[in-house]
Amino acid sequence: MAKISSQDLGSQPIGKILIKQAVPASIGILVMSLNVLVDTIFVGQWIGSIAIAAINVVLPVSFFIAALGMAIGIGGSSIISRALGAGNRDKALKTFGNQISLTILLTTVFVGTGLLFADAIILGFGGKGAIFEPAKVYYTIVLYGVPFLALSMMGNNVIRAEGKPKFAMYAMMIPSVGNLLLDYIFINVLDFGMEGAAWATSISYTFTFVYIVWYFLSKNSELKINTTHFGLNSTLVKEIGSLGFVTLARQAVVSVTYLFMNNILFDLGGEVSVTAYAIVGRMLMFAMFPVLGITQGFLPIAGFNYGAKNYDRVRESINIAIKFATVLSTCIFLVLMLFPEAITRMFTTDLEVIKQTPNDMRWVFAATPIIAVQLIGAAYFQSIGKAIPALLLTLTRQGFFFIPLILILPKFYGELGVWIAFPISDVLSTIVTAYFLNKEVKTNLINQPI
User: Fold this and answer.
1) Most buried by CB count within 10 Å: which residue of 92, 128, 163, 252?
2) For residue 226, what are the domain limits?
3) pTM summary value
4) Structural domains in the chain (count)
């Protein structure tokens, strides 16, 4: 794969550079998603279906803390992309130093709080009945590795902002491969059960952290910071926070969604329904990898060209990204509509779960072909530094539509109401995003002075 510099983001053909950015991002997301997928299969086959539900309870908590690093990474990377596009390297360096300081500070505080209130948090996120004990074992161990994951997610986004998607891809692959190997050793060979699954996950986080540190110390990175860059700058912190809050808010809403879903489904269908949701949730992470890769590849292209005032290229990048993502999401839709039972059987031999999950999966992915507009639209506003519209559009699907729907619809349709909330919220959020994106393009990306 040819090397990419930050300047290529503003000069190479959009379709070509988007593929160069998106393919490594997609592969990295694929490997990470496969990690979660296969990890769940291992746990389900070697420990039991309750273990799948237990991990599903823990994931939103650990992912929220790790998302602090992702939020800081994406927020700062938007600044870095635009700064590099405008030729302001000093601002890019200072931003990166502030990202590191913020990530260390915030994740340490949240991990400490999470360990202090472990029992209450696990119960609150649906770790009830037989799910509680294995969830607590997994939760306690995994939280120790989360700061390393947060720093890695922050660094990964900075690598992509430099226009180095190949190295960002490697950073996403390393913990995934490591986790799968350690899963086999700790669970299958040494029979450590849930403790083995948790330690495999935590140790794998440190692998990618070591790689990220190596990258920035090597000649591959353009960002060579020193100790003066670590001092927090209030202006930069505010800008990083306002843009990063979009990502953090999205993950916070995801965590709240898990909280409601696990509790509502436990009340309506017990452990079986929670397990079904865990399997569908893994497919949401896994199946969407190419669309998320397009979104990740799109971010630095839009940000760089907006910073360089190449508005025609920004507009072209939006159109091409939506087209690519729509084709891919339609292919995903067809596979999941045709083979939901075969997919479910990969995770478990529990006949009750196998009976229920395929129909649930079809409902969840029913509107998948149209979601490209929502994802690219929200990402566009984030990439150009418009935090408020990015935040609002990011929250439309789960915050403004999905959560209210899962609180209302089950009162009339029972458990079916939970599942039909997915496509309804997808359709509504796509309509809203399409309206505001179209308005933004007509107002700010057409006939602007260069």
Assistant:
1) 92
2) 15-444
3) 0.69
4) 1
